[in-house]
Design brief:
By secondary structure, the protein is α/β, with parallel strands linked by helices. Helix content is 57%, strand content 9%. The protein has helices at 7-19, 31-41, 58-68, 83-92, 104-115, 123-135, 140-143, 146-156, 161-168, 172-186, 191-200, and strands spanning 2-3, 27-28, 46-49, 74-78, 96-99, 120-121. Helix 8 (146-156) packs across helix 10 (172-186). The longest helix is centred in the C-terminal third of the chain and has 15 residues, at 172-186.
C-alpha cells in the first residue's frame, strides 16, 4: 500500500514497484485515509510519505497503524531527510527510510526487507545514523521536554511570548521563563537561528 498526497508521484512509485513484481493494493492520499485503507486491506508493507498538506503526517498514520497492528511493516518515503526525522522514524517502528530521489530498485529493496521483517538502510542514511550515535543527539527533540519543545516550535514560527501564552492558555511570565530556558539550553537566541534550527530538525516546514 502507498500513501502520498501527490498522485503523480505515487503513480510513479506504484509503476516502479509493479515492475519489480509487487502488487500495489491501494493508494491513499492522506494520513487518515492511509490508516483506514491499511485496516481494510492489511497489506504486507505500507509505504508512507511523511509530509502531507494536512495537520496529520505519515508519522501519525504509522502510529495509528502500529497501534492496531504492532507487527505492521512500514517504509517511510520522504523528500526531507533531517537526521532527527530519520532517527524518529526508526524509533517509531519503521523498517526503512528511503528518500524520494532514490533509485527505484532501492525502494523495492526496502519493501522486500520490510516484508521479511528486516531493517533496511540506504548507505548514506546508515552512515549518518552511525555518526549521530557516535557524536550524540543534539536535536531539540532530545534536549527538551514535551512542553518546552511545543513552545520552541511556536517560537520558531515567529510567535511572541504573549501570543504563545494565549495559544497555550498559560501566563506570559511562564512562557517567558520557559522560552529563555529553551534558548539557553539550545544555544540560540536570535529569531532567525531559532527558526533555522527548527527547520533543520524537521519541526516546522521550511
Amino acid at each position: 500500500m502507498l500513501a502520498d498526497d501527490h498522485p503523480i508521484v505515487m503513480t510513479g512509485f506504484a509503476m516502479s514497484l509493479s515492475a519489480q513484481g509487487m502488487e500495489v493494493v491501494g493508494q491513499a492520499k492522506s494520513p487518515s485515509e492511509a490508516a483506514a485503507m491499511y485496516a481494510e486491506f492489511r497489506p504486507d508493507v505500507a509505504v508512507l510519505d511523511i509530509r502531507f498538506g494536512t495537520e496529520l503526517t505519515g508519522m501519525d498514520a504509522a502510529q495509528n497503524i502500529l497501534r492496531n497492528d504492532p507487527k505492521a511493516k512500514i517504509v517511510f518515503l520522504s523528500q526531507f531527510d533531517q537526521d532527527s526525522l530519520i532517527k524518529e522514524t526508526y524509533r517509531l517502528g519503521a523498517h526503512a527510510f528511503v528518500t524520494k530521489d532514490c533509485d527505484p530498485a532501492d525502494l523495492a529493496d526496502a519493501v522486500r526487507h520490510a516484508h521479511a521483517g528486516k531493517l533496511y538502510f540506504l548507505p548514506q542514511i546508515a552512515e549518518r545514523l552511525a555518526s549521530l550515535a557516535v557524536r550524540g543527539d543534539v536535536s531539540p527533540q532530545s534536549q527538551l521536554d514535551e512542553r518546552s519543545l511545543e513552545i520552541f516550535k511556536l517560537m520558531a514560527e515567529g510567535l511572541t511570548n504573549v501570543e504563545i501564552a494565549e495559544r497555550l492558555n498559560l501566563s506570559t511570565k511562564t512562557i517567558s521563563n520557559i522560552s529563555q530556558s529553551v534558548k539557553e539550553k539550545l544555544g540560540v537566541h536570535r529569531q532567525a537561528y531559532i527558526t533555522k534550527l527548527a527547520v533543520k530538525h524537521g519541526l516546522i516546514e521550511p
